[in-house]
C-alpha cells in the first residue's frame, strides 16, 4: 500500500484524493448514490477482495435433488413451494464453499511445504504422497455454514458409519421450516442426502411463513426487532398469537 500502509480505509481514501489534488491530477469531485454491501451481523461496509476460493460442481447434485421431488420422493406442503425449489436447481451455478471464518468445518485440503502439492484427503495426512515430506499445512478456510448444515440429517447420526441411529432415524418424516431457506437449507439437505446416503432425508417439507414486525420486516436478532411471545400472550391471548402465526403461511 506504499504511503497509505496502516491507514484506516476511509482515511486512506481521503489521503488519495488529497494527493491527487496536490499533484494536479484531480479533475473534479462529484456526489453520487450507489449500493454498498454491508455485513448483516455487524453492519460494516463490505469491501470486494479478489481471493482464491474452493467451489463445488453443482449440476450433478442438482440433478439428484430435482429427481427426488419430481419423482415424488419428497413432497412440499403447500405444493406451490416446489416451484421455488425447482427454479433454484434448474438454474444452478457452482457453489463457492470456502469461508474465511474462525469457526466451522475445516476444508479437507493440505499443502506440502516441500513440493507444493495439494492433498485432498478424508483422513489427516502425515506425509506428502509425492515427495514424502512431513511438513504439511492445512488450508485455513472453513466450509460455508450451509454446506455443513446440509449434512445435518445424516452426519448427526454417525454417518458414514452404519449406526443404529442412522438406520432408525434416516429418513425422517417431516421437515418444518420457513420459505426463505428453501434453497439455503432444504435443497442442500435433499441434494446431500441423495448423493451421500443414496436416499432422501425426509418425506415432506412443511413450509410456514415468516414472523414479521409491524413494518413487515423479518424478525431477527441482528435487526433487534424480536418481541417476547409471552408478552404477546399476556396482552392478546395464546389463541390470537397462534392464529396470527398460522395465517402467515
How would you describe what is shown here?
The chain is 34% helix and 14% strand. The chain has helices at 9-22, 59-70, 81-90, 145-150, 152-155, 164-169, 182-197, 229-236, 238-246, and strands at 55-56, 75-77, 95-96, 98-99, 109-112, 118-120, 136-138, 142-143, 172-178, 202-208. A three-stranded parallel β-sheet has the order 2-10-9, covered by helices on one side. It has a three-stranded antiparallel β-sheet with strand order 6-5-7, with no helix packed on it. Strands 1-3 form a two-stranded antiparallel ribbon. α8 (229-236) packs across α9. The termini are far apart.
Secondary structure blueprint with pairings:
Layout: H1 9-22, E1 55-56, H2 59-70, E2 75-77, H3 81-90, E3 95-96, E4 98-99, E5 109-112, E6 118-120, E7 136-138, E8 142-143, H4 145-150, H5 152-155, H6 164-169, E9 172-178, H7 182-197, E10 202-208, H8 229-236, H9 238-246
Helix pairs in contact: 2-3, 2-7, 8-9
Write a short abstract of this structure:
The chain has nine helices and ten strands. The protein has helices at 9-22, 59-70, 81-90, 145-150, 152-155, 164-169, 182-197, 229-236, 238-246, and strands at 55-56, 75-77, 95-96, 98-99, 109-112, 118-120, 136-138, 142-143, 172-178, 202-208. Helix 7 (182-197) links the parallel strand 9 and strand 10.
| Residue share in helix | 25-40%
Main sheet characteristics: 3 strands, parallel
Main sheet: which strands, in order across? 2-10-9
- Mean of all residue-level pLDDT scores: 93
How much strand?
Answer: 5-15%
Q: Total helix count?
A: 9
Number of strands: 10
Uncertain stretches: none
User: What's the SSE pattern?
Assistant: HEHEHEEEEEEHHHEHEHH
Sum up the overall morphology in one term.
flat
What is the distance, rounded to the nearest whole angstrom, between the alpha carbons of the first and last residues?
52 Å
Report the structural category: alpha/beta
- Estimated radius of gyration: 25 Å
Amino acid at each position: 500500500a506504499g504511503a497509505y500502509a496502516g491507514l484506516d480505509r476511509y482515511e486512506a481514501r481521503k489521503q488519495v484524493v488529497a494527493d491527487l489534488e496536490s499533484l494536479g491530477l484531480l479533475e473534479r469531485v462529484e456526489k453520487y448514490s450507489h449500493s454498498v454491501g454491508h455485513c448483516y451481523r455487524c453492519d460494516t461496509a463490505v469491501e470486494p477482495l479478489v481471493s482464491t476460493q474452493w467451489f463445488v460442481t453443482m449440476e450433478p447434485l442438482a440433478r439428484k435433488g430435482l429427481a427426488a421431488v419430481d419423482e415424488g420422493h419428497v413432497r412440499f406442503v403447500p405444493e406451490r413451494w416446489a416451484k421455488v425449489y425447482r427454479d433454484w436447481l434448474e438454474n444452478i451455478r457452482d457453489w463457492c464453499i470456502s469461508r474465511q471464518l474462525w469457526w466451522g468445518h475445516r476444508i479437507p485440503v493440505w499443502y506440502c511445504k516441500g513440493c507444493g502439492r495439494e492433498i485432498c484427503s478424508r483422513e489427516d495426512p502425515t506425509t506428502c504422497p509425492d515427495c514424502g515430506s512431513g511438513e504439511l499445512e492445512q488450508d485455513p478456510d472453513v466450509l460455508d455454514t450451509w454446506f455443513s448444515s446440509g449434512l445435518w440429517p445424516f452426519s448427526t447420526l454417525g454417518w458414514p458409519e452404519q449406526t443404529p441411529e442412522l438406520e432408525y432415524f434416516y429418513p425422517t418424516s417431516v421437515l418444518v421450516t420457513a420459505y426463505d431457506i428453501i434453497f439455503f437449507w432444504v435443497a442442500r439437505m435433499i441434494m446431500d442426502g441423495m448423493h451421500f446416503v443414496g436416499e432422501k432425508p425426509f418425506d415432506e417439507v412443511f413450509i410456514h411463513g415468516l414472523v414479521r414486525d409491524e413494518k413487515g420486516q423479518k424478525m431477527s436478532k441482528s435487526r433487534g426487532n424480536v418481541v417476547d411471545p409471552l408478552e404477546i400472550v399476556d396482552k392478546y391471548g395464546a389463541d390470537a398469537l397462534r392464529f396470527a402465526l398460522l395465517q402467515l403461511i
